[in-house]
Amino acid sequence: MDPLPTPQTQPGRDGLAALLAKPTAAIVGLDFDGTLAPIVADPEQARAHPEAVPALAALAPKVASVAVITGRPAGVAVRYGGFAGVPGLEHLTVLGHYGAERWDAVTGTVTAPAPHPGVAAVRAELPGVLDRAGAWHGTWIEEKGRAVAVHTRRADDPQAAFDALRGPLTDLATRHGLIVEPGRMVLELRPPGMDKGVALSEYVRKTGAESVLYAGDDLGDLPAFDAVDELRSDGVPGLLVCSGSTEVTELAERADMVVDGPAGVVQLLRTLAAQLD
Known about the structure:
The chain has nine helices and twelve strands. By secondary structure, the chain is an alpha/beta fold. Strand 2 (65-69), helix 3 and strand 3 (92-96) form a beta-alpha-beta unit. The N and C termini lie close together (11 Å).
């Protein structure tokens, strides 16, 4: 059995120790894209790492709950992750759209409030905004139901397109009561008030968890890192894991532990499950 990596910070070591000491009171929170699923040029082609579901199925029965927290619609994350109907994943919940939607493995259903009206307004205006901004060839729009995202990864100059669009898209979002969430060559326009930190905090408190692990890879995961810090200050030990990449370094600077992308996350989950046998 492979040894567990040692967190590089004392709070992280305390968080891991608490999880190992009482796993049935622990929450494992995980981002999807870039954490459980490798980043790909076309987000519609994203799929969970081939070993992610077996690792989760081995771990989930041993902890209070596993929560996948994503900006994607919950149903999409379930399909792309291959989470439905898997033995061992009865303790899995998917919090989609930053917690606005919820899918539970036990029921197999998605619950969600009505969509924000600003999303439809932004969707209608977005093509004109991109045209006026002179968007680079290859920039494209992803429909996300309760949000809309503009991807620049396939543009001629992805970073230049990202930088050029950030201002106009922020203006557009603001006019319709939305916010812009920047990510790895993507700008997402979505309703305010929910982020991965809010979703994680609410989930931990509702479940009464006594420890938490959270793993993410992108700027949208920083609020979840902040939430774990706040939980620690309230006496709930936590472990922050970065699914490392060369595109985003902010999480690695904050993390208690850095692993090598989704493959590293899967290995960590598998090793953790084995430690709990």
